[in-house]
């Protein structure tokens, strides 16, 4: 599903990574590890189509519709409510039965009671949960997740693990993380950045 | 097509909703335009005539629009939301069009105050001027939102917006002032319509490249 | 023959430019007849070709910008930048020669009724912003995209601004091809054409020269990175 050949990325004079080779087959679960600034986020952004490689090739065999991207930032509007944010993304992703689906996800991630509150009043963990709702909203085939467990409390982490496990083998995952141990049981391959 | 229209509507509604919640852009534009008109009174020595006042009306409109446009992509910049919109399967030009419609709404609301104020302070505003304002608004918002997106992608951000926008606004000023001042406004109104058509088309076609690499 | 030309574009265009410029100066100085405007009319042989060459630069820059966006042609962005850079230089020269002409003909360094001059002033502002835009973004695909889009806007702005200025002004500027037009004496027209060809080939020569220099810079940088 993802084929990477000789991928390199530079920002000006700064070399992020070079000569990367990677193959992710459908249904695979790839853990991407490495210290801060090693290029995990950059790889995910290139795979999502948000950044352009400096050299090499990357082939991602899904359309934008089937792609779910979780970034460091939450990608939600602070002055809109949780429900309004999800409804907007639901509309843009043409999610069928939008209302019901948004409500269902908010409930699944424990945000139903806060659905009509503005994101600016949320704690960091709640914002992350909303970001996860956004990613799962349109049932993507390919998940590109950048540090999905960051800011989650124990309950939130459990909810996420459950969602990931239930899709294991059906959807494809490329997950960058600081805590690979948690996701070890699900991983089909590992990529370590230096 | 229906999907596209729905996307644009959802995005425009989102921008209007954000403004209703935060209430920062529109009030600033209203106060700015009122203050500008007062300043223009002091800037026009006696004997300069009615025509100079009409010219300054257009200056006020362009700079009030500029003020509003500098805030156009602020909400998208926090939390990296623009990436979220760009990743969506919807056409990227819908982002530009939705936001232009919202900007147009703010500008029209500001002018709903500015034009009567102008009529009170200076001279009455005729039908040709109002038609010109309507046409000019379209061009200003289309180009302004586009250029605001470009500025957001740079290091200098809002500093760059007037630099990029004002040269492109010169034809609008010419069309607007001409329609307000000349005997036959038709030519100028036609020119404004041409400007709108050409620039809206090129904005619509190339917005994709402003928000992607 | 054409491969030889392509590989030696710089040398060929420099040679052509040298020949044509010498010929043009000679023609203007000795051959072209004086008309009622007097000696200062000779500036016209440079002013208008320089202006037309500036338009050509901006047009070429926009074309390369379009190639970058549409076909992602490698190197198109650099070529677009160099063309626009030269366009600004020719544009500045247009303003200077036009100003000199205005001073001698009408006694003022600047006249708002001079449509060409005003148009170039607007374009100068616009393309100066191009540089501010370009250098406010890190080198890379983003910078290339924004520059290319902006160059397309420029090319649309040129006719629109021209129309705008025409609408805005009472006409005074003697546009060469309507006031002299087919009425331009054969010798004047010939001299004008030689000057135009000279300016265009000067653009071509400078274009290839600057491109060669920038490509060399890029190669050096790549080598340094490979070694470093």
> Which ranges of chain B are low-confidence, i.e. pLDDT below 50, for 5 or more consecutive residues?
none
Dominant shape of chain C = globular
Q: Per the principal axes of the C-alpha atoms, what is the gross shape of chain B?
A: globular
Order of SSEs of chain C: HHHHHHHH
Work out the largest interface and the residue count of each chain: B-C, 29 and 28 residues
Structural class of the secondary elements of chain B? mainly alpha
What's the total helix number of chain C?
Answer: 8
Strand content of chain C: under 5%
Q: Give me the count of strands of chain B.
A: 0
Mean pLDDT score of chain B: 92
Question: What's the SSE pattern of chain B?
Answer: HHHHHHHHH
- First-to-last CA distance of chain B: 26 Å
Work out the helicity level of chain B. over 70%
Let me know the largest β-sheet of chain C.
none
* Tally of alpha and pi helices of chain B: 9
Over all CA atoms, what is the radius of gyration of chain C? 20 Å
- Percentage beta strand of chain B: under 5%
Distance between the termini of chain C: 41 Å
Radius of gyration of chain B: 18 Å
Structural class of chain C: mainly alpha
Description:
Chain A has 194 residues and is of the alpha/beta class. Chain A is built from 6 helices and 8 strands. In chain A, strands 5-6-7-3-8 form a 5-stranded parallel sheet, with helices on both faces. Chain A has a 3-stranded antiparallel sheet with strand order 2-1-4, covered by helices on one side. In chain A, a hairpin with a 2-residue loop joins strand 1 (2-11) and strand 2. In chain A, helix 2 packs across helix 3 (98-108). Chain A starts with a strand and ends with a strand. In chain B, helix 2 (25-43) crosses helix 6 (93-121). Chain B is 82% helix and 0% strand. Chain B has helices at 2-22, 25-43, 49-69, 74-77, 81-87, 93-121, 127-152, 160-181, 186-211. The relative contact order of chain B is 0.14. With 213 residues, chain B is mostly helical. Chain C has 228 residues and is mostly helical. In chain C, helix 2 packs antiparallel against helix 8, helix 3 (41-71) runs antiparallel to helix 4 (76-106) and helix 4 (76-106) packs antiparallel against helix 5. Mean pLDDT of chain C is 84; it is low at 170-182. Chain A binds chain C through residues 10-13, 15, 52, 54, and chain C through 138-141, 225.
């Amino acid at each position: 599903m993802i084929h990477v050949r000789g991928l390199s990325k530079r920002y000006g004079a700064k070399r992020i990574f070079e000569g990367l080779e990677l193959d992710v087959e459908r249904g695979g679960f790839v853990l991407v590890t490495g210290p801060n600034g090693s290029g995990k986020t950059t790889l995910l952004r290139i795979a999502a189509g948000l950044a352009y490689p400096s050299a090499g090739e990357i082939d991602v065999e899904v359309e934008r519709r089937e792609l779910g991207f979780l970034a460091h930032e939450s990608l939600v509007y602070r002055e809109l409510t949780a429900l309004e944010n999800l409804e907007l993304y639901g509309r843009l992703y043409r999610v069928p039965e939008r209302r019901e689906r948004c409500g269902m996800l908010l409930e699944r991630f424990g945000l139903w009671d806060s659905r009509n509150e503005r994101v600016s009043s949320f704690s960091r963990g709640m914002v992350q949960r909303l970001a996860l709702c956004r990613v799962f909203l349109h049932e993507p085939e390919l998940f590109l997740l950048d540090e999905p467990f960051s800011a989650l409390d124990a309950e939130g982490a459990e909810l996420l693990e459950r969602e990931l496990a239930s899709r294991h083998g059906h959807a494809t995952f490329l997950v960058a993380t600081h805590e690979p141990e948690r996701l070890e049981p699900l991983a089909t391959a590992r990529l370590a950045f230096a | 097509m229906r999907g596209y229209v729905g996307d644009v509507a959802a995005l425009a509604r989102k921008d209007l909703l954000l403004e209703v919640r935060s209430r920062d852009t529109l009030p600033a534009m209203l106060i700015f335009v009122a203050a500008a008109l007062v300043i223009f009174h002091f800037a026009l020595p006696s004997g300069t005539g009615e025509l100079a006042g009409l010219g300054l009306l257009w200056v006020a409109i362009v700079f009030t629009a500029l003020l509003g446009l500098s805030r156009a992509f602020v909400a998208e910049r926090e939390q990296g939301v623009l990436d979220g919109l760009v990743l969506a399967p919807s056409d990227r030009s819908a982002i530009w069009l939705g936001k232009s419609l919202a900007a147009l709404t703010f500008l029209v609301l500001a002018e709903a105050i500015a034009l009567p104020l102008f009529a009170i302070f200076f001279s009455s505003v005729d039908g040709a001027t109002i038609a010109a304002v309507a046409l000019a608004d379209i061009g200003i918002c289309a180009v302004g939102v586009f250029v605001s997106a470009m500025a957001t992608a740079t290091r200098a951000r809002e500093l760059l917006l007037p630099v990029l926008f004002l040269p492109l606004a010169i034809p609008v000023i010419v069309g607007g002032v001409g329609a307000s001042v000349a005997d036959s406004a038709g030519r100028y109104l036609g020119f404004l319509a041409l400007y709108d058509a050409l620039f809206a088309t090129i904005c619509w076609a190339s917005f994709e490249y402003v928000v992607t690499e | 023959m054409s491969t030889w030309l392509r590989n030696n574009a710089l040398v060929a265009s420099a040679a052509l430019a040298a020949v044509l410029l010498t010929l043009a100066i000679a023609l203007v100085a000795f051959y072209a007849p004086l008309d009622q405007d007097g000696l200062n009319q000779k500036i016209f042989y440079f002013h208008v070709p320089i202006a037309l060459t500036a338009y050509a630069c901006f047009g070429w820059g926009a074309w390369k910008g379009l190639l970058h966006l549409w076909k992602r042609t490698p190197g198109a962005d650099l070529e677009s930048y160099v063309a626009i850079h030269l366009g600004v230089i020719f544009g500045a020269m247009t303003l200077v020669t036009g100003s000199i002409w205005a001073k001698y003909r009408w006694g003022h360094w600047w006249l708002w009724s001079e449509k060409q001059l005003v148009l170039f002033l607007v374009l100068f502002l616009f393309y100066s912003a191009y540089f501010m835009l370009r250098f406010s973004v890190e080198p890379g695909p983003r910078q290339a995209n924004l520059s290319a889009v902006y160059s397309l806007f420029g090319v649309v702005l040129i006719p629109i601004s021209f129309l705008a200025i025409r609408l805005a002004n009472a006409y005074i500027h003697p546009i060469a091809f309507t006031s002299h037009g087919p009425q331009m004496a054969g010798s004047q027209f010939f001299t004008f054409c030689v000057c135009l060809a000279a300016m265009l080939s000067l653009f071509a020569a400078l274009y290839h020269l600057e491109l060669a220099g920038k490509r060399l810079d890029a190669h050096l940088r790549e080598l340094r990175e490979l070694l470093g």
